[in-house]
Design goal:
By secondary structure, this protein is mainly α. It has one domain. Helix content is 74%, strand content 0%. Helix 4 runs antiparallel to helix 7. 23% of the residues are buried.
């Protein structure tokens, strides 16, 4: 495969995967904030899981394409074992860990009804950390990492995710008559698996 094609595919699949996981994280956080405030999560919750799957598939393809890179040679060990690569050991290792973390998050979400909410919540609580690691991976690697639009692609969503995390976990949830009145509606309209 031509070096330029490998580079384009590697960057495109990595950035597309990052955008999809960003929308997945944002939709999950927004739906969670709405549930916390006893409002229906709306269609946001339906985006969350499918986008995580697509992000995983693109990230997997992103890594597999590197096996065809003739400029920087990667082997299976480099792509499967975190921090085994001689090239940019830490950022590549972070990318491998992020991929495994996304896979574990998807698996735990699929078996949520069998493992129960407490264990699922523990696993899901690592999602912001994984998102941060994925952001570092994208910001540090790649020849286009110094281009303003690429930096913005990573930093602006990270900022929005941070704001939603603060809203979700720091700002107290709404209470009062309207919130209490919506509790049954939220419970009855929550999507299966939420």
């Amino acid at each position: 495969m031509d070096i330029l094609n490998v580079w384009i595919l590697t960057r495109a699949t990595g950035m597309a995967s990052y955008l999809l996981v960003t929308i997945s994280v944002l939709s999950g956080l927004y739906a969670s904030i709405r549930r916390q405030r006893l409002q229906t999560p709306g269609w946001w919750s339906f985006l969350h899981q499918p986008l995580a799957y697509w992000s995983f598939f693109l990230a997997l393809f992103h890594g597999l394409i590197l096996l065809y890179d003739r400029y920087i040679t990667f082997n299976w060990q480099d792509l499967l074992i975190p921090f085994a690569s001689d090239y940019q050991t830490v950022p590549v290792g972070i990318g491998v860990l992020s991929l495994y973390g996304l896979l574990l998050t998807i698996i735990f979400s699929e078996i949520r009804s069998r493992i129960g909410n407490p264990l699922w919540k523990v696993m899901h609580a690592w999602s912001p950390v994984l998102y941060g690691l994925t952001t570092i991976h994208g910001l540090v690697l790649g020849t286009d990492r110094n281009i303003g639009i690429v930096i913005g692609l990573y930093l602006i969503p990270l900022f929005v995710v941070a704001i939603l995390l603060i809203i979700r976990f720091v700002i107290p949830k709404r209470s009062g008559p309207r919130a209490i009145g919506n509790a049954k509606e939220v419970r009855d309209n929550a999507p299966v698996g939420s």
